[in-house]
Automatic annotation (TrEMBL):
Signal peptide: none annotated. The chain crosses the membrane at residues 26-49, 72-95, 102-132, 152-175, 182-203, 209-227. This is DUF4386 domain-containing protein. Keywords: Membrane, Transmembrane, Transmembrane helix.
Length: 232
């Protein structure tokens, strides 16, 4: 009698663990499908905002751009913040897909750190947006923005390292591990070079948008691979 009860309890525990594993796999896959599209929206909004000129390279330029395109700035910021939040479970999904790859682990850790910092950068943009919509004392506001960015420059630096370096390391690990389709890993790997090319050679954000779309498609391919994987 006791042995029967113990076997039943063990079988029930296995079922519960299987359901938990499946739930986590599905949740991570959904995050992988959704997270990178937030950055596609962010980059597209910036492309549209600067199509007539402008930038956010300093406080004065950011105030001018935000005042001219508040709707695009707000949409791009919110989409990017949601993408940052969803990126954490998305990266955890990639770690599940390539659990034996140290490159994926290291790159994923850098990406999470970088996008946590990007969440902070984007949230700070709403202060700039409020200043731009208020409209008075632009010189003072610009000085405050520049001073604030000087104090938190290390936050942006971590974002850059995680966004570009972390993504490249993670995608290289996915390629080496063969845990996901090659085209999916290459899609993710396309983001860093296209972003850099856009910054150096183009001023219209087009390469960044293309890179963000390829990255999103790559994440989607990884999500499908994770969903199709047999639970171990």
């Amino acid at each position: 009698m006791t042995a029967t009860v113990q076997r039943a309890a063990a079988d029930g525990s296995k079922i519960d663990n299987g359901r938990t594993t499946a739930t986590r796999r599905v949740a991570c896959s959904v995050a992988m499908l959704l997270a990178p599209w937030g950055f596609v929206i962010t980059n597209t909004c910036y492309l549209l905002a600067i199509r007539g000129g402008g930038s956010d390279e300093n406080g004065a330029a950011a105030l001018s751009l935000y005042a001219a395109q508040p709707g695009l700035v707000r949409l791009g910021s919110v989409a990017g913040m949601i993408g940052c939040l969803l990126l954490v479970p998305a990266v955890l999904g990639l770690l599940r897909a390539a659990r034996n790859s140290w490159l994926v682990f290291a790159g994923g850790a850098l990406m999470i750190a970088g996008y946590v910092c990007y969440l902070s950068v984007l949230s700070g943009g709403f202060v700039t947006l409020a200043m731009a919509e208020r409209g008075d004392h632009p010189a003072d506001y610009a000085a405050v923005i520049d001073a604030g960015q000087a104090e938190t420059g290390w936050v942006f630096l971590i974002f850059v390292v995680g966004n570009l370096g972390g993504t490249a390391v993670l995608a290289s690990g996915l390629l080496a591990s063969r845990a996901v389709p090659v085209w999916a890993a290459l899609g993710i790997l396309a983001w860093p070079p296209l972003h850099i090319i856009g910054l150096i050679f183009f001023g219209n954000e087009v390469p960044q948008v293309i890179g963000a779309v390829l990255q999103a498609l790559g994440f989607a391919g990884c999500a499908v691979a994770l969903l199709r994987r047999r639970p171990s």
